[in-house]
Amino acid sequence: MKFLSTALLLAVCLAAAQQNPPGTVTAESLAPVVKKQFGPTFSISNSIQPPLITADFNGDGVEDAVIVADSKEPLPDSYDFKYVVADPYNSYFGFGNPRVTSTFGQSDPSQNHDLLVIFGSGADAWRATTPKAKYVLINVPFDTIHVGRMLLKKNKPPVFVIKAVESQVMDSAVWWDAKKKKWKWEPGSTLE
Fold it and tell me: Which of 94, 117, 119, 187 is the most exposed place for a label (fewest CB within 10 A)?
């Protein structure tokens, strides 16, 4: 009997350990946020983990969010949901008109992920009902993302960037240029 109760206790502890810890953001908990802020054409990407990173990407002292999502048509809902579609990757090469470049990534659906950026507002930060600004970044090549930091000027603190890692190719940085009010992409080092 003692063995059975110990085994039962161990099974309960293992089941509790496999659940997400309190406060963990899951794809299921992000789906309503994405639908409310960006519309029904976006869905959380299941192939990219983690689907969410947070940091102060615009340098205003409020936490912002980047969510990896999929959409075949990011442009049509931009007016209704008040977000800006940007293509920092193709802009780097001199051709960043999202109306044209939004069709570029459709040839490889496994790599056609968007980065949904929410600039936070007030105490609720990126979870605020009305964020400071919203962006959909298209055509950025990546397999994984994480938060990075980059020094732009010697006498200024480093800024938070989205480190976009494309396995077996390179890493890159996507960052908000507060002076020009636009997103920029910059190649990084080749991975070995």
Answer: 94
